[in-house]
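Q: what does this look like with 26V bound?
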Amino acid sequence: MPQITASDLKERIEKRLIIENGMEVANATNKDVYYALASIVNEEIIPNWFNTNQKYASKRSKQVYYLSMEFLIGRLLESNLLNYGMLHAAKEALEELGFHTENVFAEERDAALGNGGLGRLAACFLDSLASLYYPGHGFGIRYRYGLFEQRIIHGNQVELPDYWLKNPYPWETRNEEESVVIQFQGKVHMFKRNDGSLEFKYENTDKVMAVPYDIPVVGYKNNVVNTLRLWSAEPIPGTENERMEENQAFYHDLDHQHSIEQISGFLYPDDSSYEGKELRLKQQYFLVSSSIQNILKKFKKSYHLPLSKLPEKVVIQINDTHPSLAIPEMMRILMDDERMEWDAAWKVTTNVFAYTNHTTLSEALETWPEEMIKDLLPRIYMIIEEINERFCQSIWFDHEELRDEIPELAIISYGRVHMARLAIVSSFSVNGVARIHTEILKKKEMKDFYSLFPNKFNNKTNGITHRRWLLQVNPKLAEVVSDVIGSQWIKRPKQLISLLKYSNDKALLEQFDQVKHENKKLLANYIHQQTGILIDDQSIFDVQIKRLHEYKRQLLNIFHVIYLYNELKENPNQDMTPRTFIFGAKAAPSYYLAKEVIKLINTVASIVNYDTSIQGKLKVIFLENYNVSLAERIIPAADISEQISTASKEASGTGNMKMMMNGALTLGTLDGANIEIRDLVGDDNIFIFGLTADEVLEYYQNGGYNARDIYHTDDRVKRILDQLNQGAFGVHDIEFKDIFYNILYHNDPYFVLKDFEPYLETHELVERAYRDRLTWMNMSVTNIAYSGKFSSDQTIREYASDIWKIKQV
Ligand code: 26V
């Protein structure tokens, strides 16, 4: 990789501005400079992109394809510069040219093609694949509108469309020549060929063209450039004659064109709540049909092997069930186009697909109405039916003990198609995303499947790319770390463990403390600039940033804030370390209770932040439009990482890992990867509270929890709930009644009241611990030291060796 100096870059930026824009630097805007720099980066990347593809082809390496409806990429200029080893030079060049690096980077709109954890995980995985020299690529959809932009108006969430492609996106290349045709609806006719085999012909299908846009995925200083291929839906260009004819039905045609383009029109903004919308089903089939066609075309072209050898050269990971129609699509092409027999096609298919489960929430599990699939994808439906038939037969004949369970196991049952069942039956690997999550899958949610296929189930605890989430977002911390233990940790993140040797070194701890404080000042400035609110940079920055969902219990957090406020009102002189509670969260647009919680947080904030009687000891900040770029600002400044889901509900969490890596201490329940964090750092370096997963599951199964008992016996709880009910936090007295009712009349389904007292007690421990700076910083450094374990490099190595069986090239 060539060394590019700041002065080289400066010159190239100047030159580019003249050639492309006909302007001198003095007249250039941040945007001009952003595009100039991006195109210089592209110039560097493209030869390596080409070479990487050549290399994979010539080595005939096995490839992994990560199929995902979501890739939550965020911005790319800074991370591409970083991975390309040009970041320092670029910063210097920009400053010398009179630009603030940050403002130039901020010209790039986040590519928010994902909802939350699942989509961000996909993006981290691509980064690790490329950085570890693995031949691995992503397939997704190029949504014209990403996840909505959130505004808070009078405390309420308002959604605006995210038209992120308004300005040209410099990282994508349209590759029209690799377009493929996707067919929906129509009629299937079956014929017998002379040799007795069956032939399927489709009539009157709706055809759509899938056009790929490729985004380079740059490995860290290793010349590897993999590909993220995003498909865009377009009408099939007709011949001149056809267009003349169509012209007659111009308006009908516009309508039709619009409905085609809608397929890649927008990202569904729900996360963990499933709705059987036909357009979403279309999107899913659009993604998988184009990707599978592409994969097979490439296999045939580059490997010159029979399709029976596909599993030796190709493995496909499906990110949750969303792309699981890839399974019948593969069967369809192998049988109908490639003339394989069922058994041969099944053997290939079941050795190619691996499935990751990301949730056990029953409301998030995908099941489609049978009729919808039959109508939209008639041939796919026939194949699913056949898979189901054979699977049910195998239970009936080979597993008598499960005969009664067939309705609960069948892929098609009571008029619905169960996608998780389809994925489990047809994949060679089924993995959960944290130890406890995988155990719950095996012992509860997928118990019978586990007994049928024990060898398929495995765990792959999630991870995060330490390049973006430490090196890039927290350069000061990265520098101190490298000063202390050298910079090998960047390539081998587990080496962060060497920090442990220094976790009692007073001078060093003070240095870490100083870095954290500087990061807090930066965030405080940003908050001031965004909200006009001044926060105390000496206060504890207590952070909860994630999607808003009842099970994540932002409500528990704000109840605690209300409690503190009530206490302070009674005793304003109370000796207490000042606290700043920082929230960032989007709610699904139709998720009423989640939106009520957003309103509650904002309402509490508007009271607390302006009440001078509490002497600035408490501030509540809700930052609007939480996204990857905002996370990058907040995480380096966090002291406390709130990970307080109802135990058993959060499959893994990845924000917990990001904050840990930046020296925040986790305040959390024994859920998801929190448990693995606890196991590493030990009870002394984490704040754990609340019900365990077993206790929660036991309550769900056998009852025994009564929220009203707590309401009637705990005055603190009663006071808060009554305040909600009586309008103490609202303009109208009905303001938060629904939250009140949900807790008392639906018996607090997420155990907020049950965990309230232990949560308060644990917060008191936090407050006391924070007073002892050195002990706190010792805990903080211990967390950073162990965080290397959660680099997605580690996760990807495990996927590669246990599931994918791919080698580094
Ligand atoms: C479900 C649906 C339902 C249909 C509409 C669109 C949509 C989009 C996403 C989902 C599934 C959400 C599952 C999910 O995001 N799980 C999260 O995955 C993270 C990565 O494994 C994990 O860290 C989080 O704990 C888990 O909640």
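The two ends are 17 Å apart (CA to CA). Residues 303-458 form a domain with the Rossmann fold fold (CATH 3.40.50.2000).
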